[in-house]
Write a structure and sequence with these properties.
Elements lengths: L2 H23 L8 H4 L2 E7 L3 H13 L4 E7 L1 H9 L6 E3 L3 H9 L3 E10 L1 E6 L20 E4 L4 H12 L3 H6 L3 E4 L2 H9 L5 E5 H5 L4 E6 L8 E8 H4 L2 H9 L3 H9 L3 E2 L4
Helix pairs in contact: 1-11, 4-5
C-alpha cells in the first residue's frame, strides 16, 4: 500500500469510527455502562494538556460527537490511578516511562507518540530578582525557584536540565527549590509572585500572560518531552473512546495542538 492510499484508508477509518459513535450516542445500542451508551469518554490527561483538550472536547460536543470528560493531573498520579484500577478510557501522558508502567501491567491496548514540548524558565512579570538566564538562579537575589514534583515529568526534566548546566547541586543544596504537585501548580507559584522563577513547559507559559519566558532550555540538555496517547484496555471496549482516540490523532486536532504551542509528532 502506498503512502497516499494508506493516508486515505486511515482517514476513512476515522470517519467510520466517529460515525458509528454518533449512532451509539443516540441511544440505539444498549450497554451495561450508561456512560458508554451516551458516548462518554473519560480522558486522563497531563495537566499541561488540559486547556487544549477542553477546546477539542468543546469542538466534539458542538458536532454532536462523543462527550469527553477530562481529568487533568500529574502524569504520575494518573498512571497510579490506572494501575490501581480506576476507570479511564484514554490516557495522555507527558512521560513515556509511566506509559510503559501501565503497558507492563496490561492496561494499554494501543499507544502512539502524539506531542512534543519545550522546557522554559519563567519569571513573574515584574521580575524583581532580575533573572535573565539559568545561571541567575544562583544569585543572592533569588529566594525560591519552583519546579514540578520529583515524580512529575516536568520536575524530572527540569532537574536534568539544571544538572546539564552544572547548577543543580548548588541550587538544591541552597534550599531554594519549591516543588509543585504538577506543572500547572508550579506555574501558579510564579504567577502569584510566590517564587522568583520557575521551570515549566513552553505551552503552559504561553497560556499565562502574567509570567515572562526568559530562557528556553536546549533540547539536548534533557530527555525529549514526548506525550504518548494511550487507548486503555477499558477504552478498547468503548466505541466512543476509539473514536476520540482517532480524532486526537487527526490533522484537525494536530493543528489545534500546534496552535497551543505543542509539537505534533509524525503520525505513525
Amino acid at each position: 500500500m502506498n503512502h497516499d492510499s494508506h493516508t486515505t484508508h486511515h482517514a476513512l477509518r476515522q470517519m467510520l469510527v466517529i460515525s458509528a459513535v454518533l449512532v451509539l450516542g443516540s441511544g440505539c445500542v444498549a450497554s451495561e455502562d450508561p456512560g458508554r451508551e451516551s458516548g462518554e469518554v473519560l480522558v486522563l490527561a497531563a495537566a499541561s494538556t488540559q486547556d487544549v483538550l477542553q477546546r477539542l472536547a468543546d469542538l466534539l460536543r458542538e458536532r454532536g460527537g462523543p462527550v469527553m470528560t477530562i481529568s487533568a493531573a500529574g502524569s504520575n498520579a494518573l498512571a497510579q490511578q490506572i494501575l490501581a484500577g480506576a476507570p479511564g478510557d484514554i490516557y495522555l501522558s507527558a512521560d513515556p516511562l509511566w506509559v510503559q508502567e501501565i503497558a507492563n501491567a496490561g492496561h494499554a491496548a494501543e499507544t502512539v507518540p502524539l506531542l512534543g514540548n519545550d522546557l522554559v524558565l519563567v519569571v513573574p512579570a515584574e521580575n524583581r530578582a532580575d533573572v535573565r538566564e539559568p545561571g541567575d538562579l544562583l544569585s543572592d537575589r533569588v529566594r525560591h525557584v519552583a519546579l514540578a514534583g520529583e515524580e512529575v515529568p516536568a520536575g524530572r526534566y527540569a532537574e536534568q536540565a539544571l544538572r546539564a548546566l552544572g547548577l543543580w547541586d548548588t541550587l538544591s543544596g541552597s534550599g531554594r527549590v519549591v516543588r509543585g504537585q504538577n506543572v500547572r501548580l508550579t506555574l501558579a507559584y510564579v504567577e502569584r509572585g510566590e517564587v522568583d522563577a520557575g521551570i515549566v513547559y513552553a505551552t503552559d507559559a504561553a497560556a499565562a500572560p502574567s509570567v515572562r519566558v526568559v530562557h528556553t532550555f536546549q533540547r539536548e540538555d534533557y530527555p525529549p518531552v514526548v506525550y504518548p496517547l494511550v487507548l486503555t484496555t477499558r477504552g478498547r471496549d468503548n466505541p466512543a473512546a476509539a473514536a476520540v482516540f482517532a480524532f486526537l490523532q487527526s490533522p484537525e486536532a494536530r493543528a489545534i495542538f500546534a496552535e497551543h504551542g505543542f509539537h505534533p509528532l509524525a503520525a505513525p
